[in-house]
Write a structure and sequence with these properties.
Catalytic activity: 3-methyl-2-oxobutanoate(out) + H(+)(out) = 3-methyl-2-oxobutanoate(in) + H(+)(in); 4-methyl-2-oxopentanoate(out) + H(+)(out) = 4-methyl-2-oxopentanoate(in) + H(+)(in)
Strand content: under 5%
Largest sheet: none
Number of domains: 1
Helix content: over 70%
Distance between the termini: 22 Å
Pfam family, one: MFS_1
CATH superfamily: MFS general substrate transporter like domains
CATH class: Mainly Alpha
Number of strands: 0
CATH architecture: Up-down Bundle
GO molecular function, one term: symporter activity
Membrane topology: Multi-pass membrane protein
Oligomer: single chain
Radius of gyration: 20 Å
GO cellular component, one term: basolateral plasma membrane
CATH topology: Growth Hormone, Chain: A
Length: 399
């Protein structure tokens, strides 16, 4: 699933080039961190646009256009002469292209699967760490051989594969449902308290989730780790993540786990946050490798579960609109998280603060989601018992 593959892989792997970009453009960590933030902000902020386009034109066409934009942005970026141009090309254009690939991919998953949807989500999400495992050392290799410009150019060529993947997305039932969708973006989904809880939790999550991976390579290089070994750290995260996501999908599909999906997701968030906090003082390479193993596990759990939880809340019919609105809110968080972490590094020259900050945000989100879900679900179940004859369904029962 190419759309989901590029979501994390491209954004994180581009961090391999940060050191060279800082030298060429005479800028700091926070300036280069903005590139990843803008890609993420476009990926998330374009959510409503992608929702409208999918509802109007269908998944296949939107993915084809997205592939061309993602590729074109990276190719043009290879010719840029300052950091602002890089923000517009690798950031805005490529980010928009990835958004137009990412959302249709998730929507098609919801169309293809129902009973085994958690496993399908886990398997599809596993494509992201595969891409990350390959692209991080490849990026370092390209950087050493062709410089960052050549690396960007070749990456742009690789992203054309998004078009190939979009071409084989068979519409299936999408055509039958399209005429019945009168609204291109349905705001009525926001009436669901479960969705509001999810949006708040995900906003806090996104503030810190990507921060350690974006700054990890620079952190390792600053500790004297050789470039290739530093890039390999992302491959360790990706390799562990490859197995974590499908495994988590299998567990999430178990009949006694699936109705309690928000709690399982909360556990994944706590695990990820505690990994960050406990690894804040790891400065040697062995410590960083251990961090990457545990981070890959917890990051994979979050990646496998995040959209499955959302599908469970709003169902198939509301998923496209809900996803667009969720991503829009998350766009604000990704514009705050990585650059603020980069600012802390520039100012205090201390990476410990970043791990504590990111970990604290993930732990806060996990606790909030668990508590809010507990009180909301209990109230919802009570209401369901009272209105059983109307056929109401509790929020987290299988859809």
């Amino acid at each position: 699933n190419m759309g989901i593959i590029v979501e994390d892989g491209e954004m994180v792997a581009i961090s391999v080039y940060f050191k060279e970009l800082m030298k060429d453009f005479d800028c700091g960590y926070s300036d280069t961190a903005w590139i990843s933030s803008i890609i993420l902000a476009m990926l998330y902020g374009s959510g409503p646009i992608a929702s409208i386009m999918v509802n109007k034109f269908g998944c296949r066409r939107v993915m084809l256009v997205g592939g061309l934009l993602a590729s074109g942005g990276m190719i043009i970026a290879s010719f840029t002469t300052n950091i602002i141009q890089l923000y517009l090309t690798a950031g805005v254009i490529t980010g928009l292209g990835l958004a137009l690939n990412f959302q249709p991919s998730l929507i098609m998953l919801g169309s293809y699967f129902d009973k085994r949807r958690p496993l399908a989500n886990g398997l599809a999400a596993a494509g992201s760490p595969v891409f990350l495992s390959a692209l991080s050392p490849l990026g370092q290799l390209l950087l050493n051989r062709y410089g960052w410009r050549g690396g960007f150019l070749i990456t742009g060529g690789l992203l054309l594969n998004c078009c190939t993947c979009g071409a084989v997305m068979r519409p299936l039932k999408c055509k039958e449902r399209k005429p019945s969708k009168k609204k291109l973006l349905d705001f009525s989904v926001l009436a669901d308290l479960g969705l509001i809880i999810y949006i708040i939790a995900k906003f806090i999550v996104v503030l810190g989730l990507f921060v350690p991976t974006i700054l990890l390579v620079n952190y390792a290089k600053d500790q004297g780790v050789p470039d290739q070994d530093a890039a390999f750290l992302l491959s360790i995260i990706g390799f562990v993540d490859i197995f974590a996501r499908p495994t988590c999908g299998v567990v999430a599909g178990l009949k006694w786990i699936r109705p309690k999906m928000p709690y399982f997701f909360s556990l994944a968030l706590l695990f990820n946050g505690l990994t960050d906090v406990c690894s804040a003082t790891s400065t040697d390479y062995k410590g960083l490798v251990i961090f990457c193993v545990f981070f890959g596990l917890s990051y994979g759990m979050v990646g496998a579960l995040q959209f499955e939880v959302l599908m469970g809340i709003v169902g198939k019919s509301g998923f496209s609109s809900a996803l667009g609105l969720v991503l829009l809110v998350e766009a604000v968080a990704v514009l705050i998280g990585p650059p603020s972490a980069g600012y802390l590094v520039d100012k205090y020259k201390n990476y410990e603060l970043i791990f504590y900050m990111a970990g604290g945000e993930l732990i806060t989100a996990g606790i909030f989601l668990a508590l809010a879900s507990f009180f909301f679900i209990r109230r919802k179940k009570h209401k369901d018992r009272q209105q059983k004859h109307h056929g109401d369904v509790p929020i987290n029962i299988k859809t």
